[in-house]
Design a protein that fits this description.
Rossmann fold, alpha/beta, 181 residues, five-stranded parallel beta sheet, globular
Length: 181
């Protein structure tokens, strides 16, 4: 990673984007450049994004940065009541990176997922988009209690493969705080 780029990427619900921006600007006395990547403010390149200290977006906007997964053709035999191909609906974002939006192409210094309970189901497109982000450091914030029996969320956070925290950064464990190096 080029040391000149230290952009933090924050994914949060729409209702919190302005609050994040105001808090960052207030707490840093306007020292950090903040960009909200949402609505009409999406006409920006990867190179331009790297000029900001903090980039904010929503889970929905992030999903739009990745092309829809290619669905497998479902086959069914005549008079067959069970569609065997429907069992594995775990599609990956396998399309060419050229089709990806700028948010998906940046190597972020830090990715912060606010209200991360929105990705507790690792099979959603929002969760998969978060898992695909390239970052040195990854933070997961949630005000929602995460019960130990919610394995889908833990599987997405604790690492391995395309999991959030796997590949490039240290894996996070539910209930612990990992300081950056």
């Amino acid at each position: 990673m080029n040391g000149a780029y230290k952009t933090t990427f924050i994914v949060a619900p729409l209702a919190l984007l302005e609050q994040w921006k105001l808090e960052i600007e207030h707490k840093t006395y306007g020292q950090l450049r903040v960009y909200i990547f949402h609505g009409p403010n999406k006409n920006i390149t990867k190179k331009q994004l790297k000029k900001y200290d903090v980039v904010l977006t929503t889970y929905g906007t992030l999903v739009q940065q990745f092309p829809p997964p290619e669905k497998k053709e479902k086959t069914r035999k005549p008079n067959d009541f069970i569609d065997e191909s429907a069992e594995d609906d775990d599609h990956e974002f396998t399309s060419n990176k050229v089709k990806h939006g700028p948010l998906a192409l940046v190597y972020w210094y830090r990715v912060v997922l606010d209200e991360a309970a929105q990705i507790r189901n690792k099979r959603t497109r929002a969760a998969k988009a978060c898992f695909e982000l390239d970052a040195l450091n990854r933070w997961v914030l949630s005000g929602t209690l995460i019960a130990p029996h919610q394995r889908n969320f833990g599987a997405g956070v604790e690492g391995g493969g395309n999991a959030f925290g796997g590949g490039g950064g240290a894996a996070l464990q539910v209930g612990t705080i990992k300081q950056e190096a």
